[in-house]
Amino acid sequence: MALIRNIHTAPMSKVDLPGVQGATISVMVGREDNAPHFALRSIEVEPGGNTPHHAHDYEHEVYVVSGNGHVLLEGTRHPIKAGDVVFVPANEEHEFTAAEGTDEPLKFLCVVPVEQNCGGEVPGS
Description:
The protein is an all-beta fold. It has no helices and 9 strands.
């Protein structure tokens, strides 16, 4: 069954995990939509907030929709902004942080395998 959702109007849920500050998530397409291979999530991080510092055994791809901040990869913080694409390899420790001192949150789309942790419980996983 085909599906159309808009990232600007999709309901967001608070991410309540250790180390997370000001992050919300919406599963745009996932297991509940009968997606057989991939899940697409929308994640928003308030200015100065962050996703968890973590790693997992699958890769994912990220597209930064708006805002700016940093992504921790290979032990280094790299600046990111709207229009950037980030590849996070499997087993790589990572964390997304929104820039402080701005009114604009960091918003990004994240693709992960649907067989894995795609239910929305770990943003930017």
